[in-house]
């Protein structure tokens, strides 16, 4: 396997794969733009690291591209790369780089788009996969299963139609940042009411973790879970009405809508 552009996300995924025992260090090569960065990656991850993207792709069966969207064309759209990647599986995690663009550059490569998020770093990621259902660049069921195994090692995976990748880029890829803003704001409220900052942040983070677990581990709708907390004439409903006065639901939903629009323009 090779990881082209091994930055924040690439390192999270490679680290997760090795921790899960899924990938031996001698089975992966990672790339970076600068030799000093490659050297540091080699030291941190214990894997081969190079600045030579072409050689890395030539020696790999599976190629995970973790470059920023604007770097894709320069690195992938050339004959040497087309030849190196023909008949192989390429998985791109970039926002906004469509399967159509990838197929134009690499018409003989099996292609999968994946949208992971930074909690992959701690094995709590969510990754959403998309592939074309026909044509020379459509990944096979076996290739999709392989991609799923890769990302299952750093969290949970799901599949959507390719046309929904911008929506999952926003909800899933950007989602952690939106949660951090909400978490920080709730902790600020605790600080305002006298809690020490570290205590407030720990409580807020555990509230998000616990509440998310309740949604995932029970069959209950979020609204039913909210009702469990909301004592008549109690403090929770007082807080919820304040949230609704601030139009928090439409603000959050529109956040996903706006980020989806921008995600679609990044490729
Ligand atoms: N950061 C996030 O939360 C998420 C990012 N993504 C997508 O993942 C991709 C990577 O994002 P990050 O890891 O955050 O970015 P990053 O900037 O940390 O990683 C990109 C890496 O590419 C390397 N690079 C640049 N030019 C290169 C070249 N010519 N050859 C080889 N390597 C080169 C850089 O050294 C850098 O380490 C982006 O396309 C982004 O849309 C997807 C989901 C979540
Ligand atoms: O903000 C971005 O463009 C990237 C894609 C998803 C998360 N971060």
TrEMBL record:
Residues annotated as binding NADPH: 53
Any one GO molecular function term: pyrroline-5-carboxylate reductase activity
Enzyme class: oxidoreductase
Gene Ontology biological-process entries: L-proline biosynthetic process
Reactions the enzyme catalyzes: L-proline + NAD(+) = (S)-1-pyrroline-5-carboxylate + NADH + 2 H(+); L-proline + NADP(+) = (S)-1-pyrroline-5-carboxylate + NADPH + 2 H(+)
One Pfam family hit: P5CR_dimer
EC id: 1.5.1.2
InterPro entries, per the entry: 6-PGluconate_DH-like_C_sf (IPR008927), NAD(P)-bd_dom_sf (IPR036291), P5C_Rdtase_cat_N (IPR028939), P5CR-like_CS (IPR053790), P5CR_dimer (IPR029036), Pyrroline-COOH_reductase (IPR000304)
Presence of keyword Amino-acid biosynthesis: yes
Biological role: Catalyzes the reduction of 1-pyrroline-5-carboxylate (PCA) to L-proline.
Protein name: Pyrroline-5-carboxylate reductase
Source organism of the structure: Plesiocystis pacifica SIR-1
Annotated gene: proC
């Amino acid at each position: 396997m090779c990881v082209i552009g091994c930055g924040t996300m690439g390192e999270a995924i490679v680290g997760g794969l090795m921790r899960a025992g899924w990938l031996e260090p001698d089975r992966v090569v990672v790339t970076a733009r600068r030799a000093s960065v490659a050297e540091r990656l080699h030291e941190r991850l214990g894997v081969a690291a190079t600045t030579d993207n072409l050689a890395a792709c030539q020696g790999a069966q599976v190629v995970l591209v973790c470059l920023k969207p604007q770097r894709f064309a320069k690195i992938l759209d050339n004959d040497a790369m087309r030849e190196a990647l023909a008949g192989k599986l390429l998985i791109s995690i970039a926002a906004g780089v469509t399967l159509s663009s990838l197929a134009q550059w690499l018409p003989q490569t099996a292609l999968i788009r994946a949208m992971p998020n930074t909690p992959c770093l701690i094995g709590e990621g969510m990754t959403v996969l998309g592939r074309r259902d026909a044509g020379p660049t459509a990944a096979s069921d076996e290739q999709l299963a392989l991609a799923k195994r890769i990302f299952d090692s750093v969290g949970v995976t799901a599949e959507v139609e390719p046309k929904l990748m911008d929506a999952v880029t926003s909800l899933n890829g950007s989602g952690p940042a939106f949660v951090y803003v909400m978490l920080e704001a709730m902790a600020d409220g605790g600080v305002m009411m006298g809690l020490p900052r570290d205590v407030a942040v720990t409580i807020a983070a555990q509230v998000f973790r616990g509440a998310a677990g309740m949604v995932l581990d029970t069959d209950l709708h979020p609204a039913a879970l909210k009702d469990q907390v909301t004592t008549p004439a109690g403090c929770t409903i007082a807080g919820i009405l304040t949230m609704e006065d601030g139009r928090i639901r439409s603000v959050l939903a529109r956040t996903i809508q706006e980020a989806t629009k921008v995600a679609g323009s990044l490729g």
